[in-house]
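Predict the 3D structure for this chain.
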Amino acid sequence: MDETITHVSLSVEKREDEKYTPPKQSANTLFRFFKKPDYLFSSIEKKAMIPRYYGENIEYLDIGFHQIAYPMICFCDITVHRLGEHLDLYGKYGIAFSKSWGIRKGIQPLQYVNKHSILCRDFSEAFNTSIKEEKEDSATNFLLTQMYYMKPIEGTMPRDGKNITKNFTDECEWRYIPNTSLIDLPQAVTESDMASIDVLNRTISETDDIWLKFEFDDIKYIILPNNSDFEKLCEFLDGTIKDELIRRKMISKIIIWDEAKEDF
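Done. Predicted structure below.
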């Protein structure tokens, strides 16, 4: 198998007139969090979120690779009253959208895989067979696409310079995987080519063809850690959004976590 994977992953937008049944046990919201306020402010200014290649440990699949990286944007559908631990781990600056918006954009919930299950065994066998036969057909493409949206139930992940053990089902993760063939980039890179990730991410950041775009009305909430950040965002919005009504609506969507967390 080539060290870069060029399989095309296409998202299909949901029609506006399709009915959507909201969930009762999970949030009807997709949250995206950032470590730094600049990342949030930049997304608001661009009205877009920019995918980045992230490495995933796929040893649990037993397909001959330790790690593989895909371009993605990650969300969670955790209810607001359970967000505290997630903010501590992934960043306290958040932007949120309705789940129906995410579905229209082709954002997909992950499948959490038990490494001892028949599903994991059959996937591994099918993938390894596909590699040996060097096929590039619809079945192989399906296996690659499926892998983009799979994660083990539990495992380790790098965080703040060390590996931590985590049950990944707590993340309730959804993913946006762009079609990178639009800008002539690989859909995935294997571990031997991980050194190229910075260059690939820079390329993505320099063209908006595969960015995940939104309108201000699509934003459901903006989460900030404290009043100081609230003041900074208001000042930023004053200089970014000229329409006063839109600016007021944006400010009305802000949740200051330090003040609100005890009420959820």
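Residues 108 and 174 are 5 Å apart (CA to CA).
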